[in-house]
Design goal:
The protein is of the alpha/beta class and 318 residues long. 33% of the residues lie in helices and 22% in strands. Helix 8 packs parallel to helix 9.
């Protein structure tokens, strides 16, 4: 089906967001008789509130809310996000129309000297804005100093190169997509440094009733990515977590099997909790697997640990 009007793609204006949106546009353009696409830059609250640590910001969807509003208002036809930024419950009227193949889900350490995490000297300053990364860094290296870090990926890398930090931790997928992987000193093992839920997956959203647009997006869908993040997001939803909770998880598909592992700990690295389970790689089983692993974490004390961490943050920063 041809369409003369351009498909308007809502996106943030950061280098990584634009890379992701151009990737989506390229996949659409590769289809026969595809419509033209147009990128529409939208500033989000996460872009505006650059001086406020993410853990201090109320609510969720800091980097997605304004784009999704533009989608619902008809100002754009497609919204492109890093799936890890999306809340587990989407606004009414929005469909998660396609998920692109998952890139490397791991976190990466970028140090000024090229040293690995274990080789950094005591007292080294490591920058990150993620409570999850803070918690697992504190667990691995309680002798280092954790420093707040905001800004887009190139800016963060520039800051570590000029000595503002001894090292920083970023998502490997974003660094690689921007052609900056040569700065990586070490890729962190997901078993000891579990990534954020859905890390490495590009999400493409559309209005639920917009069937013409959905048809162009169907070709972008990756079934393994869908199975993996269905399990991870079900886990997060059941735990009632979010980016302010020091939780990491990773689901992987091997043949007909889906494995999900998840872990969390206190912000000082103590009280580690983890769980792992396996299920057939089907959509229904993926959802149930996430709930099962979340239930195991709750039975091991996750609810009380998260309650204590949230209460502590109402008094002072980590």
């Amino acid at each position: 089906m041809s369409r003369t009007r351009a498909l308007r793609i809502g996106t943030r204006a950061s280098a990584l967001a634009l890379w992701q949106s151009r990737e989506v546009a390229a996949h659409i353009a590769a289809q026969p008789d595809a419509p033209p696409t147009e990128l529409v830059h939208i500033r989000t609250s996460g872009d505006v509130q650059t001086e406020i640590p993410l853990w201090q910001t109320r609510g969720r969807a800091f980097f997605t809310r304004e784009i999704d509003r533009a989608l619902l208002d008809g100002a754009v036809d497609i919204a492109v996000h890093s799936l890890k930024d999306l809340p587990t419950e989407l606004d009414a009227g929005i469909a998660l129309a396609a998920l692109l193949p998952r890139a490397d889900p791991r976190d990466a350490l970028l140090s000024r000297s090229g040293a690995t995490l274990a080789a950094l000297p005591a007292g080294a300053r490591i920058g990150t804005s993620s409570l999850r990364r803070r918690a697992f860094l504190a667990r691995a290296r309680p002798d280092i100093a954790l420093v707040e870090l905001r800004g887009n990926v190139p800016t963060r890398i520039e800051r570590v190169q000029r000595g503002d930090y001894d090292a920083i931790v970023l998502a490997a997928a974003g660094v690689t997509r921007l052609g900056l992987a040569h700065h990586v000193s070490e890729y962190l093992d997901p078993e000891t440094f579990p990534p954020a839920v859905s890390q490495g997956v590009i999400a493409v959203c559309a209005r639920q009733e917009d069937e013409p647009t959905a048809r162009w997006l169907a070709a972008l869908e990756d079934s393994d990515a869908r199975l993996s993040v269905t399990a991870e997001r079900a886990l997060l939803r059941h735990l009632e977590g979010g980016c302010q909770v020091p939780l990491g998880a990773l689901a992987t598909v091997h043949g007909g099997s889906l494995t999900l592992m998840a872990a969390l700990c206190a912000l000082d690295g103590t009280h580690p909790l983890s769980a792992r389970a396996q299920a057939p790689a089907t959509p229904a089983e993926a959802e149930a697997l996430g709930v099962r692993v979340a239930t195991a974490l709750l039975e091991r004390g996750a609810a009380e640990l998260m309650r204590q961490e949230r209460a502590a943050r109402t008094v002072e920063p980590p």
